[in-house]
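subagent[fold] <- orchestrator: predict structure for attached chain, return tokens only, no commentary.
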Amino acid sequence: MVLSLENVFKYYGADCILRDVCASINEKDRIGLVGANGEGKTTLLNVLAGGLDYEEGSVNLTNGKVIGYLKQNSGLANGKTIQEEMEAVFSDLIALGEEVDALQKKMAQVHDNPAEYEKVSAEYTKKLARFEAQDGYHIQVKINTILNGMGFGDYDRGIITDNLSGGEKTRLATARLLLMEPDLLILDEPTNHLDFKTLGWLEDYLSSYKGALLVVSHDRYFLNRLVDRIWELERTVLTTYRGNYSSYVVQKKERVERQLKEYELQQEQIKSMEEYIAKNIVRATTSKSAKSRVAALERMDRIEKPVIWEKKAAFRFEYDEPPVKDVFHGEHMSIAVGEGESRKVLCKEVRLDVMRGEKIAIIGQNGVGKSSLLKAIQNMIPLQEGHFEWGQKVKTTYYEQENRQLHPEKTAINEIWDRFPNMYEVEVRNILGRVLLSGDDVYKLVGSLSGGERAKVAFAVMMLERGNVLILDEPTNHLDIGSKEVLEDALEAFDGTIIMVSHDRYLLNRIPTKIIEMTPDGYEIYEGRYDYYLEHKVEPQPKKAEQNEEKKQAAQKFYKTKADRAKQAAARKRIAFLEKTIEENEQTIAELTEQMSLPDVAADYQKVEEICTQIEQLKNQNEEFGEEWLLLAEDQ
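subagent[fold] -> orchestrator:
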């Protein structure tokens, strides 16, 4: 057991936020905390981490256990470099290592003073054992592993963290917390600001994390891969479900349906008893029976009406006329930005064919031109090279990820009405009501709406435009989980054509029939969804126009691949050698350290000096081999 909560109540004023919360976290637990915005998830995390008081109950942390909590937008210390931030985690251990080194040098200095030497030697042996027990010789290896995994492999470690972007600071704070290795690791939206590569590394790392995990995330794919239990916080009550996020969705629906049925049956029973009481309480012959029913009602454990699934937006995309079979054809498409020396080519030689009914997702790291490609094929920005054409009867409708196509100074109702002036007010209100904007909210300025509300206005416009081709740029960015699921249902039901850019892996694993990965070197097409892409991902090869050149390149590729295989085999052999040598060196260091504590050795200062030199050499070799091991392991 790491931590337990017993009957915890938390209030803000008269409002109850947490009601009678009982839960426990054991070692190796993998828990995902879910709930709508405003339900109290962050409050619960702060209570768990000891940063917030509560009115009733108890939070019990097992003696010696450590909690690590990364809040959203966590800051770092001002004025420190990346390397200093990472080493600060090991400050006590680094200081201990410096003491060990100092004692080792002192032993050589006092070798002619047996009493002093014996005292220093005993202290050295004691502190060295502590240093080794805490894996002190692998501090830099650990730092390099975590920083590389979290996307800082190419960064200058001397950069002051104040100069990093907000997303970079959050990633670095996550890396720092991972190095701390607390017994309970609490992460609040850890997948924000991470690309696919870093996400995959973080999931793999957390899957084998030796402590317990409690994660708040809107990334359903992340939760599915990582957790085996879901805590749901709803209407102040915490409910536990076994399994990952997808399993939770099924169990939640079943539980609500079962509880609703039990509630309705009990209500029928209560109504029947109340009717009997009303008819018989004043009759002499039946009064006793009626009074017994009154007592039974008072004793009855009333079933609360379950929280029915919250009202969700109602997205539905329809069109009036289907397009021809060949919806889109583009060849040699290249896009560049900037002029002169600042000119940068985002993508080049892209060929794209889209057939009616296809659902295509474009993925890739930031800056490779995904969003620019969507704009270029709509003539919103020019192509640098190449050409494209849309098929007959194609009607596109476009979702821009930051909703810049909306007017911030217009009200939500006028945003719709000005685009469709022939609609009646009740029709405009109805379409806004379908996306959960109603009452006075329809008169709010678009610029004052939340990101999720603006997204819903944009989807309302798209539904009214009735396009047979949907072009979507990060459509789930600003939506809560419930709205994401409704949107996915609508996109899945849409029998038209979809071209979208997204980093939402849950969406990518449900909607597209084809994935195109864009990279700085080109692009690759995968005829499947996200899991298929992961399974079949290959490094893109440059395309050659001439057949002979293609054959030449293919031959070169074969020999290169063969050479690579030989290189990788040699690297694996070297890795095995390094691991074995490091282990043997550590064993030798331990044996040599034990030798120095022997009376006959301790009395021979020359022998001690030789042993100290040998230990120092072994330590240096292990540090060098550790760095080499890390570099080789990254290429495997």
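orchestrator: received. Logging for downstream: The two ends are 37 Å apart (CA to CA). Residues 542-546, 554-560 have pLDDT under 50 and may be disordered.
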